[in-house]
Design brief:
By secondary structure, the protein is of the alpha/beta class. It has helices at residues 6-14, 27-35, 47-50, 62-75, 93-105, 119-127, 144-147, 157-172, 185-194, 215-218, 235-238, 241-253; strands at residues 19-23, 40-43, 80-84, 110-114, 133-138, 177-181, 199-202, 210-213. Helix 2 (27-35) links the parallel strand 1 and strand 2. Helix 5 crosses helix 6 and helix 8 (157-172) runs parallel beside helix 9. The structure holds 3-methyl-2-oxobutanoic acid and sodium ion. This is 3-methyl-2-oxobutanoate hydroxymethyltransferase.
Amino acid sequence: RARLTVPGLRKMKAEGRRIVSVTAYDAGFARTVDAAGLDFVLVGDSLGMVCQGHDSTLPVTVADIAYHVACVARGLSSALLVADLPFQADATPERALDASTRFLQAGAAMVKLEGAGNKLDVIRFLSEREIPVCAHLGLTPQSVLRLGGYKVQGREQAAAERLAADARAVADAGADMLVLECVPSALAKRITDDIAIPTIGIGAGPACDGQILVLHDLLGLNSGHRRPRFVKDFLAEGGSIEGALRAYADAVRDGSFPGPEHGYQ
Ligand code: KIV
Ligand code: NA
């Protein structure tokens, strides 16, 4: 397999080929995810919760992400690597440029950041400097203090309209991809139909151009937290870690995951 590129992601959307992704935090898992044929890997700031044991993503630093990006990059040969900008690393365009440059020099091909609003300037600043950007809307875990918890977003009409407008705005600002987390399936479909860049859902229903899950969730390793409804443990049917990743990829590509029971109305 040739290495997937940023234009390759957009081509997959245009051709109706589903994009499959999972998080990874180290070289061993990255190698297995790559062997299972997934399209991209995210070094998410979820590592604060699943690796570091914090109860939010807020404590994660640029140095933490840079370390894990370097580890994961050594394990990948075909999948594209995306790195999360951690809490406040995207507070100004200049800070975001510094952190993103570190991540790209460590092997990432794209950075991800949460929100629209004042982040539109950051997206524009990075993409104008040849840094591919993945936006992230809906439930944005770095907003947990203001949101008061991890809740489905865009359920009321006004909030749905705002989210749809934000999706268009991040695409117009130069984002190359958009993660939609915990939004009603119908709204995710509307946004996916409305913009040219691929949408990647997590708790956003089956109509997105691709799906992402946290690796630990997919393997049933989420003890200590209530399992969200969009999570499926693929280890039982997969029989092994690589088998679980292949079962997940097959299910996303044939449209059987996520099912209606994994989405929000
Ligand atoms: O940090 C993360 O793992 C993420 C994904 C869940 C999209 O942002
Ligand atoms: Na994240």
